[in-house]
Amino acid sequence: FEKQDELKRSAMRAVAALLTIPEAGKSPSMADFSAQIRTNPELTILFESIQKDSASTPSTDSMELS
């Protein structure tokens, strides 16, 4: 169960990171996945928690992409 919980957290962190891309909201797949997260109370709570954590903690492992 602990590994499943960590996999869920990892997936939610990936989704949160993808949603920071300006064009991500226009993707039908991303919109569908976001809707699935919002309709599942457990995933909604987890996703909101991860968004709060990422907003309050500056990323230390950012990569230079230029």
UniProtKB/TrEMBL annotation:
PANTHER family xrefs: TIP120
One GO term (biological process): SCF complex assembly
Protein origin, superkingdom: Eukaryota
Keywords assigned: Repeat, Ubl conjugation pathway
Biological source species: Spermophilus dauricus
Full protein name: Uncharacterized protein
InterPro entries found in the cross-reference section: ARM-like (IPR011989), CAND1/CAND2 (IPR039852)
